[in-house]
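Hey, can you fold this one?
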Amino acid sequence: MTTAPAILVTGGAGFIGSHTCKALARAGFLPVAFDNLSTGHRDAVRFGPLVPGDVRDSAAVERAIKAHSAEAVIHFAASAYVGESMANPGLYYDNNLGGMIGLIAGCHSAGVDRIVFSSSCATYGIPDRLPIAETTPQAPINPYGRTKLICEAMLADHAAAHGLRYAALRYFNAAGADPEGELFERHEPETHLIPLALRAATGQGPALQVYGTDYPTPDGTCIRDYIHVSDLARAHVLALQHLLRGGETLRLNLGTGQGLSVRQIIAGIEEMTGRQMPVIWGPRRPGDPPALVADAREARVKLGFVAARSALPTLLADAALAYGVRDAA
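Sure. Predicted structure:
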């Protein structure tokens, strides 16, 4: 009997991490979730073992890799809210940079030299043109984006020194949920637009707070490129397989190439639910660029990746399962 190759997934109890664990299991891997459960959920670890631990503890990372003979690491564990990073930058430098230091040290000690890294479009800041290509200058405007950019630099430096190979996946706005209803987006407090809008539309939460109606966009609200979490999970598996085959280091955008405004998201949810959403229109939030839309061609060329479930009706329908909306298109 062949043993499934193990992959350590830091932050494997979180939103994108748990979906990626499911995709890994379906692809024939054993996902080993390494998570301190500070924001993740124990019941989301369903597809392999859970190893409680903090990525800032390099010895714990090393032990987890050796205990399961993990062949590579997918690194999600991080703090990931733009607004929070503006208010509490120290938390982000401690958790995100400290986590990358511990992760790389643990991997090096355990002899693992392949890492798939959850980076972000926040590393680009306010781009001078859209869509955003991988060659766009990276000039983040908030601590969250800066920590992700520094983490990319740390990987590059260790690659030059030790032969580490990695994939830095700069994804845009993760949204949606597992279409089979096993996993959902669960953040406390929730800050993401689509779950907050669904809560407001279904009466399960307060009115939706919209930050900014005077951006230089067609309808005055922010534009983002929303990509389904299941598509993101599949892209991580493709990047992992690329590295395991001996492929080169990658730095790739993960998005759809299509931007949607906050008003368009609201309209889509109102159409799906048949309910008018209560909305509070407020001023801009510091650290938010007007528009972020990916040039997604490089991921298609290098990995054969195309977003399959990210069209707005499908993405909203999958996300809505968590709120009892089951007759969505």
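Residues 6-175+227-254 form a domain with the Rossmann fold fold (CATH 3.40.50.720). Let me know if you want another pass with a different chain boundary.
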